[in-house]
Amino acid sequence: xxxxxxxxxxxxxxxxxxxxxxxxxxxxxxxxxxxxSIERGKAKAAQFGATHVFSSKEELFADxxxxxxxxCTWNNTHAELAIFALENDLHVLIEKPLSMTYAxxxxxxxxxxxxxxxxxxxxxxxxxxxxxxxxxxxxxxKLGDIYYAKASCLRRLGNPxxxxxxxxxxxxxxxxxxGVHVIDICWYLMGRPKVKRIxxxxxxxxxxxxxxxxxxxxxxxxxxxxxxxxxxxxxxLITFENGxxxxxxxxxxxxxxxxxxxxxxxxxNGGAELEPELKIVSEEHNTILNIHxxxxxxxxxFATAFQNEINSFVDCCLxxxxxxxPLEDGVEIMKILEGIYISATEGKxxxx
Length: 352
Ligand SMILES: NC(=O)c1ccc[n+]([C@@H]2O[C@H](COP(=O)([O-])OP(=O)(O)OC[C@H]3O[C@@H](n4cnc5c(N)ncnc54)[C@H](O)[C@@H]3O)[C@@H](O)[C@H]2O)c1
Prior knowledge:
The chain is of the alpha/beta class and 352 residues long. Helix content is 33%, strand content 24%. It has two domains: 4-124 and 306-325, Rossmann fold; 126-300 and 333-351, Dihydrodipicolinate Reductase, domain 2 (2-Layer Sandwich), CATH 3.30.360. The protein contains ten helices and 15 strands. The strands form two sheets. It has a nine-stranded mixed β-sheet with strand order 14-13-12-11-7-10-9-8-15, with helices on one face. Strands 3-2-1-4-5-6 form a six-stranded parallel β-sheet, with helices on both faces. Strand 9 and strand 10 form a beta hairpin. Residues 135-350 form the Gfo/Idh/MocA-like oxidoreductase C-terminal domain.
């Protein structure tokens, strides 16, 4: 079988996981890279063995050998690049968030409908081992109807700076960057119900706090702390058409004792914590059971999840499978994220 020829667009921090995972996949030829910084593109091509370094998107899309792309660029370029890729008949794996706005997401969907290509959104948590294990319990009805979920992703110090902190390049702060992951994973495990009402709040109280010393954190490839136009905390209550609800809070910086990630789901037959460690709650013979699955990775296994995500994308491209994280899910999550920002700005509930 011919190998899938893949290019990675945007060779900053997260691209390492795409590039590394493609090189580990025996059915992929890592054909090329393209970054607005040609030096960075060249360095990553050399590091991971990509054979072509493109110097513009036009040059990349003109090369008819390319079959699929990973888009790992700033959020404000996602929609444009995704549409270019689709119009050039390429399969697309796009990093989260799908776009900056719901309108952009709908534009991508309109173009995708005309091109029968694989389009996968980078909801990497769907591919984590602990998620897959929990999903198998949920599919077997062990949780029953999930009517409540709660997700937190709180960084006490973790504004990545650079484009992440400029709203016109990112579309928002921790909500669009971190909230996208935890909202998606809850929504996916809850059975992807349609959103009905949203109440959200955002706060911009602490800035990026780059004066703090002796504590390291994730930084954009072009780290710069001089501009900060995004929220540092967001919270929301999201209610779905089936009556289920999801409570979420996320921060880039907060006077919290420690960083915290927690994802909890509660159903009619049982409950579960996906993070910080997979645990399942059940009831049998009038007794509550806390179940501790015996698996290697009880928490999010970053590198394995990325490898699974890439392998799944490649399988979809080569064998025409349906994606585990399809475009329509990216569009629905953009609707939710935007709804939270609208509710926060207008100071009232958004009803659909
Ligand atoms: N799945 C995850 O867990 C995860 C984690 C971090 C980042 N991300 C997402 O990945 C994307 C990139 O994030 P990052 O942390 O790697 O950022 P980064 O700043 O480290 O890297 C982005 C790269 O994109 C390049 N770039 C920007 N616009 C471009 C364009 N129009 N054409 C070509 N290159 C361009 C920049 O030069 C830079 O090298 C973002 O959408 C982010 O939300 C996902």
